[in-house]
Amino acid sequence: MSVVIVDDHPAILDSLGRYLESQGITVLGTAGDGTTAVELIERLRPTVAIIDLRLPGLSGLEAVLRVRQRAPETRLLVYTGVGDNELVYQSLSAGALGVIQKDASLLELLRAINIVAAGKPYIDGRLASFMLEGSRSASPQLTARELDVLRLLAEGNSNEAIAAQLHIAPDTVRAHLRKAMKKLGSRTRTQAVATALRRSVIS
Questions:
Q1: Quick one: which H or E segment has residue 190?
Q2: What's CA 126's distance to the chain center, in Å?
Q3: Which numeric CATH code is attached to 2-128?
């Protein structure tokens, strides 16, 4: 697996790069601003790009949008020090597959990278927790089981892992997900998670 790290703090670029290399991940390059990041990712085509949102010049969100257009095969993980519901929604809507906070442990960051590299969505649990209060009453059209599936999906679980946790068959998980996507007007799993977070219906 290969990554590009984008952050305007040299210390983060250095320490994070060293850690990921020690875990067998190839760091193809680093960038300290959005414009350089887009050019670097387009040229190097890493498996995952880890992008901070607060960048000089071109913003992280705009960088995510441009990378999705120019290097669609690269999976994008937003790595941010600011966390709120709107941020998560904007990041996923722009094309990021995952969002994690900077104060997460290195092990959790590694887990997030692996989940995103596998093409699955990942949402930092503490970001999703902002939407806990009143979540179920906020969206009566979604069943309790559909909400459970979306919540576990946001945590980066596969259909099989969700099935094991909920004690149902993987095909049943897929059926619940299809119904939830239809109700939310979403075309993809990631869009369904983003919409559910936007509407504060999952935690």
A1: helix 189-198
A2: 13
A3: 3.40.50.2300
CATH architecture of 132-198: Orthogonal Bundle (1.10)
Contacts of 99 (CB under 8 A, 6+ apart): 77, 78, 80, 87, 88, 91, 92, 122, 123, 124, 127
CA distance 197 to 180: 13
Q: What are the sequence ranges of the domains in the chain? A: 2-128, 132-198
C-alpha span between 124 and 142 (Å, rounded)? 22
Reduced to 3 DSSP states, what percent helix, strand and coil does the chain have, rounded to the nearest 5? 55, 15, 30
Handedness of CA 87, 90, 93, 95 (dihedral sign): negative
**Residues 155, 61: Cα–Cα separation, whole Å:** 21
What is the distance between the alpha carbons of residues 195 and 176, in angstroms, rounded to a whole number?
A: 16
Per-residue b or e along 5-29, where b marks 16 or more CB atoms closer than 10 Å to that residue's CB: bbbbeeebbeebbeebeeeebebbb
Buried b (16+ CB within 10 A) or exposed e, 51-77: bbbebeebbbbbbbbbbeeebeebbbb
pLDDT single digits (tens) 134-181? 344 444 478 889 888 988 888 878 889 999 999 999 999 999 998 988
pTM attached to this predicted model: 0.71
